[in-house]
Structure formats: C-alpha cells, structure tokens
Amino acid sequence: VHPNVSQGCQGGCATCSDYNGCLSCKPRLFFVLERIGMKQIGVCLSSCPSGYYGTRYPDINKCAKCKADCDTCFTRNFCTKCKSGFYLYSGKCLEKCPDGLEANNHTMECTSIVHCEASEWSPWSPCTKKGKTCGFKRGNEVRVREIVQHPSARGNPCPATSESRKCIVQRKRCQKEGKGKKNREEKRKKSNKDESKETRQESKGRAARRQNREQRESNNKMQPKKRKAPNKEQNLAPIDTAH
Question: Which CATH number do you get for residue 140?
C-alpha cells in the first residue's frame, strides 16, 4: 500500500491512497478490490457486485469472490445462480445432474423427474353403433380417463386416455324413436286439418250471410210500390146552390 494515505476521500471511502484507491470504507459499505490491468483498486459499495458475496466484520465489511462456476452466491460454498453451462443443485454448480434428477434448461437447475399421472377409468359407455343404441346386435363401448399430472422432459409419457371394445346386445327395434316421430307428424297434420276446417266453416258462414242479404235486397226491388188511398173529402162533388 502506498504510504500516502488521505482522509479526505470520495465515493464512500473512509481512508484512501492515490495508488490503491479506497483503503477502508464508511460504515455499512462493503470494501471490494477491482482489478484494472495489473493493478487492484479498492472501492466501497452499498452491495457486492455479481460474482461476489458479502461478509461483515466488526472492523470492516468485505466482498469476496464466488467460485469460478458460480454467478451469484450466498457464501463461497453456497451458490444461488450458476454461470452458463452449469446447473444449480443444493448450492453447487454441476455440469451434469445426479441420477434421479433432470436438467431444467429454463431455470438452469437440477429438478426431480415428474412422471405422468392419469385418473381412474370412467364406467363403460352404453353399447352403440353409428351413434344408435338399437337396431343392431354387435357394437362398441368406450371408457375414458383424464391426465392429472403432465410429465417432465425425462418423465414417463402419458398413457392412452380412451379405450374401446366390442359389445353384444339383444337386438331390438328402434320403435320408440320412429313412433314418436310418427305421432308428432300425425298431431301436426291433425292440427293443420282442424285449422283448415275452421277456416272453411267461417268462409261458408260469411258467404251464406252475404247471399241472404243480397236475396233480401233483390226481393225488395221486385215488389210494386203501394199507392196511397185518395182523401174522401177531396173526391166529394161540389154542391150546386143555384137552384
């Protein structure tokens, strides 16, 4: 250390020299050596830079380097983030994850292998053929299940989520559906027929009333008009008073 030590330092230094920079730091600051070429310069920081970890002592707080494969660390022997090409596991940086673990390239950590998990099978569906449950003897029935846990990269793949098998049923005719359709058709025709009947009856009634009215008017025109009876007083001859 250069013997020229100064007390009037800047940048958080408590003591410094022109050649070595900071020699000690103000309270709560961390002292760290930065290499510039062949020379090391002391600086005082509020927190340690990447690749260093801080240690507090009664007389000075220091930043020390992490291991070469560690990007950030809590102590020298406990890494919190690894450099590129390494995977973090239990505070250590490894090139290859231990057995039973797999490398997660997203987090750059060694994580447990997750296998696929599926739910229980559902009950078998009714026996069907071409979407129908009647009109056949041999058909198919199916059952399904859901995936409840998807696997990780090295985990066991998921099984099939549906199964189908042949089934045999007692042949029966599809009468219910046809009968219902026939009944609906008959009801519709009957309703249309009733409406047509009511409409015809109303039309006949209006025509009959119109015909009766026209007949009355025609009869009134054909009857002669009655003459008024002459006034008796007017028909009397005048009395001759000359004799």
Answer: 2.20.100
Can you give the length of the chain in residues? 243
User: Is residue 145 domain-shared with residue 161, that is, in the same domain?
Assistant: yes
User: Is 38 a residue whose pLDDT tops 90?
Assistant: no
Tell me how far apart the alpha carbons of residues 76 and 68 are, in angstroms, rounded to a whole number. 10
Which is nearest to 12 in space by CA: 53, 63, 52, 51? 63
pTM of this structure: 0.48
The number of distinct structural domains making up the chain is 3
pLDDT of residue 114: 92
Averaging pLDDT over each range in 2-6, 183-187, 228-232, which range is the top one? 183-187
Yes or no: say if 105 and 124 are a contact pair by the CB < 8 Å rule: no
Which pLDDT value is given to residue 230? Answer: 53
Domain range holding 129? 117-168
CA 155 to CA 168: how far, in whole Å? 39
Which residue from 78, 2, 94 is spatially nearest to 39, judged by alpha carbons? 2
**Cβ atoms within 10 Å, residue 44:** 24
Q: Where is pLDDT greater, at 133 or 150?
A: 150
Q: Which residues of 162-196 are buried (b: 16+ CB within 10 A; e: fewer)?
A: eeeeebebeeeeeeeeeeeeeeeeeeeeeeeeeee
The full DSSP string for 205-216 is HHHHHHHHHHHH
Q: Give alpha helix (H) positions in the chain.
A: 175-222, 232-235
SS3 content of the chain, % helix, strand, coil (to 5): 20, 35, 45
